[in-house]
Every structure is written in C-alpha cells, then in structure tokens.
C-alpha cells in the first residue's frame, strides 16, 4: 500500500536540485567508467564488475557504516523516554512512520539521520545534544532531521557521494601502484594510463562540489520545513545558536574525528567564514540559517 505524502511542506527547489545533482553525478559516473574502459580496454569486464559492486555496497550499506562510525546505538522508549517522546510528537505532526531511534555517546552536540527510505530511517542524537537543549529546542532539531527523511534527500546524498568515493579509490590505487611512474617510458599507451589518476581526481572534485551545493541547500530546506511544521522557528534558532556556540568548547581532536561526517550532521563540526571555505562547506553559515528562521518567525507572526 502506498503511503500518502507527509505533512512536511514540499520543497520544489530541493526536488529540482536533487534531480539535477543525480543527473550530473550519473553523467560523471558514465564518463569516468567510459574513460577507464577506453584506457584499459582489456580489463573492461573487471571495471564494470568492480564499479557495480561498489555502487551496490554504497547504496545498501553506507547508511549503516555512517551510523556505526558515528557511534549510533538504538535505544528503546524505556532507555530514552524524552527522545522517543519528542520523535513520537513529530511523527504525529508530520503523519510519518516512526524511524529507528538511536543515541551516540559523544559530547559533541549534534544529531543526524540516515537511511535509504522511511522504512530504514534512523534518527540519532548525541548525549551532548540531549544534555544541552531544552525540550522545545530538541524537538526543533529532531524535526529538522525528520525533514531529511521525509524529503528523501538522505538517500540522494548517499547515492551522490558514491562517485566521489569511487573516484577517490581509483586515484589512490593508481598512485599507490606507481602507475604513473612505471608508465612514463611506455609510449602513448603509458601516457594514456597516466591520465587515470588525473581523470579520477577531476571527477572527484566535480562530484564533491555538486554534493556540497546540494547539501547546503538541503540544510536550509530542512530548517524551513521543520520550523513550519512545529510552528516554533525561534526554538530551532535557539538550538542552532547553542549548538554552534558549544562547538567552540569541544576539543579540536574530537571535532577532527567527527568532521568526515559533517554532511550528515545538524551542524558542522567545523565552519569556515572564508569565501573559499564556504564553497567546500557542507552547511550554510549560521548567519544564513538564523536569518531564514527570523523571516519565517515574522511571517508566522502575521
């Protein structure tokens, strides 16, 4: 039986960006595989098998790997009644099935959602977040994460990140195996093989930029739809301010360990104010997010 759409406000801008990103990522993927087949003609069956296996593994297991890497442990309502209660209220508001609920024992105040769809979704909050936020602030953060599940952008980010993973693996293998060094004197064929790490690196950068652009927009979208669903944009703004302020008091070593998972987090472990840093950032700036929430608060007040 097909479920009806949730009560989260639809975001056509997000949908358009997801479709565009998937199309461009798919095009880059085809180009990369085509380049590999053209340069390594005799190995094309192996290339197709490896590329297909990596794609399947990325799609089916990346959310579990990410949850495991961030220390997420599923909890029962008896173990975490406040967390389960907040998610129950959001699910009732949004008319959505309840996701799996988890806690990560980390002092870094954050939350994240993973899963390919609503049936496999998992929403996790860290102990640092639960300790610092008031109930209405926590509900705002969890509504933000549930928005990612409702709009399915978690699944899109999972698939979109595959190309970068594949290109990075190819680049490392080529460099570690000394392909470039051993092919310098091998004539045109060797020169062609030397292009493998270069082509992979270019594809990696392009794929990285595409996923970062989508990631920044989806965070703004989740803030907006969560604020409209709960009707309390000020609570979400307060949570953002608290979380961002608390990050400055977390040891740098702990933040570095969490940085690879920034794209999943409610707030980034590190944020750059430099224009170049923003280009590579997974999240919009705190100022952009607070300005949007202030506008929504004004609109709701009318």
Tell me the strand order in the biggest sheet.
Answer: 1-2-4-3
CATH superfamily of the domain at 62-158 and 201-301: Metalloproteases ("zincins"), catalytic domain
Shape category: elongated
The CATH class of the domain at 62-158 and 201-301 is identified as Alpha Beta
Cofactor: Zn(2+)
Transmembrane segments: 21-38, 44-61, 154-177, 189-210
Pfam family, one: Peptidase_M48
EC number: 3.4.24.-
Gist of the model:
With 302 residues, this protein is mainly alpha-helical. Helices cover 68% and strands 6% of the residues.
Q: Can you describe what's shown?
A:
This protein is mostly helical and 302 residues long. It has a domain at 62-158 and 201-301: Zincin-like (2-Layer Sandwich). Helix content is 68%, strand content 6%. It is built from twelve helices and four strands. It has helices at residues 12-39, 44-69, 81-94, 127-132, 135-151, 153-176, 179-182, 187-230, 233-247, 252-258, 275-279, 286-301, and strands spanning 72-74, 100-104, 111-114, 122-126. The protein has a four-stranded mixed beta sheet with strand order 1-2-4-3, sandwiched between helices. Helix 1 crosses helix 2 (44-69), helix 1 (12-39) runs parallel beside helix 6 and helix 8 runs parallel beside helix 12. It is elongated and about 65 Å long. It holds the Pfam family Peptidase_M48. One of its GO terms (molecular function) is zinc ion binding. Keywords: Cell membrane, Hydrolase, Membrane, Metal-binding, Metalloprotease, Protease, Transmembrane, Transmembrane helix, Zinc. It is found in: Cell membrane. Its main location: membrane.
